[in-house]
Amino acid sequence: MPSITRDQVRVPADVPADARDVYIENYLAATRNTGRLMLFACDQKIEHLNDDFYGEGIAPEDADPEHLFRIGSQGTVGILAGQRGLLARYAGDYPDINYLVKMNSKTHLVKTSQDDPYSPQLYDIQTAIDLRDNGVNVVGVGYTIYIGSEYESQMMTEAGQLIADAHSVGLLVVLWMYPRGKAVANEKDAHLIAGAAGVGVSLGADFVKVNPPKGTDAASSAELLKEAALASGRTGLVCAGGSTVDAKTFLTQLWEQIHVGGATGNATGRNLHQRPLDEAVRLTKAISAITLGDASADEALEVFEGRADFTVA
Known about the structure:
Layout: H1 20-30, E1 37-41, H2 44-47, H3 66-74, E2 79-83, H4 84-90, E3 99-102, H5 125-133, E4 138-147, H6 152-168, E5 172-179, H7 190-203, E6 207-210, H8 221-232, E7 236-240, H9 247-259, E8 265-268, H10 270-273, H11 277-291, H12 297-304
Parallel strand pairs: 1-2, 1-8, 2-3, 3-4, 4-5, 5-6, 6-7, 7-8
Helix pairs in contact: 3-11, 7-8, 8-9, 9-11, 9-12, 11-12
């Protein structure tokens, strides 16, 4: 199992001396002392409305927002990411989870063909600090930037200030970095995704979340991901999990993203919460076996199927 010590955590130079210990503690908590991030993305109730939570092929319990927190509490995750209000409603009952406050969001109703995407910041950093001060285990904040949108300058400005504010109090920042807009011909282009990762580094993010590139006849998605992993430098790179697929396929893709593509973790949402609770919990443990424990895809599948166990302190 990979592990890092406090001395091995690279603290950004914009974290003041009196916040360094807090930053280190948050980094170790979020990565379970491994340097790799297992992010449970629970921000889709705004992003995708109820499309991801109710309907054919979706577990009935996913209609209840508390399903997200039951998974996070009973499973093995690094951080659970959700909007401030969602966390305020439920996190108090689940104090064992590490939380990330998603600071901006938009719905999917206005399509790119109508208008380029803009996801405005919904509240300032103080609201995340207030949650933390009220007993919610907030270790970081997150923000989505659509590079290529005609509104990218507003989003980069908001994200840049947010990172400075977050680091000033020792909080981590994860940037969702998605090329999107009428100027973007191919959102899954590996070279463009690498460029998006580089923007995240330049803004000062601790982790960037990107969509995996689309494979070609010459190279697989994981092989093409290498360019983005290199471009991210000292900023950790994680891939979005996308729509729900069978566990074996998902775990194989995840293993390849880390061990072929150079990712430093994963970000999974629908592939977890659209499943019944027991199945979702087992999948968190299987994902974490790969992300935090360096298990093979086959070993992780055994964890998912209940033929092996994986726990992390």
